Description:
- By secondary structure, the chain is an alpha/beta fold.
- 35% of the residues lie in helices and 22% in strands.
Amino acid sequence: xxxxxxNILEENKLDALLVSKDANITYLTGYPSRESYLLVxxxxxxxxxxxxxxxxxxxxxKECAVQQYNGSFYKTISESANKLKVKRIGFEERFLP
Length: 97
């Protein structure tokens, strides 16, 4: 994980950042991202994907927990953020799914 991302969290007083653009997820993790989201927080990073990529992601992503979303990825991400006690979450500028 590119450590500069944690500086962005601190500078913007964020608890977490939701990355949704595949190119940015690939840049941050070094893993070719497809149909995924990345929740970066100070305590835990979580990579959300569907069932097609879950096992491969678990093998290759060492700095992220991998969680499969079923149905609504918004609900899955929200539940994960709540468990991490995230109060302020940032989103990528100019890109939302």
